[in-house]
Amino acid sequence: MSGREPVRWWSMRPAQNLKPATYRCPLCGKHLPALSEHVLIAPEGDSSRRRHAHTACVLSARKAGRLPSEEEWRRTQPRPPTPWERLRKRIFGDT
């Protein structure tokens, strides 16, 4: 999926629609009937940019690490220093 800027994480939820529509899966490019079970994916939870995708495509992309959830992304981010670490640095000047 191409976009304006890199997406850090994705929100995902199961979807199924009763309207007679067809979408195009952004992951494989094939048609996706709205009546079938599928997944709504949204970059960084932005529902205005949500897309309908095949469940199998989403599972495959997640397994490959291409659609991390917010929780998975947060675990990769550096943690701020604890109060003890800040105090120690202040007293001892450690880096």
Write the layout of secondary structure elements.
Elements lengths: L9 E6 L6 E3 L6 E3 L4 E6 L7 E3 L1 H9 L6 H6 L7 H10 L3
Antiparallel strand pairs: 1-4, 2-3, 4-5
Would you mind describing this structure in some detail?
The longest helix has 10 residues. By secondary structure, the chain is α+β, with helices and mostly antiparallel strands. It has a single domain, classed as first zn-finger domain of poly(adp-ribose) polymerase-1, CATH 3.30.1740. The chain contains three helices and five strands, in the order βββββααα. The termini are far apart. It has a three-stranded antiparallel β-sheet. A two-stranded antiparallel ribbon has the order 2-3.
The total tally of domains equals 1
Structural class: alpha+beta
The percentage of residues in β strands lies in 15-25%
Shape: elongated
Low-confidence sequence ranges: none
Briefly, what CATH class? Alpha Beta
Record the strand order, biggest sheet. Answer: 1-4-5
Mind telling me which CATH architecture this is?
2-Layer Sandwich
- How many β-strands, per DSSP? 5
Condensed summary:
The chain has 95 residues and is of the alpha+beta class. It contains three helices and five strands.
Provide the descriptors you would attach to this structure in a database record.
95 residues; 5 strands; single chain; 3-stranded antiparallel beta sheet; alpha+beta; two-stranded antiparallel sheet
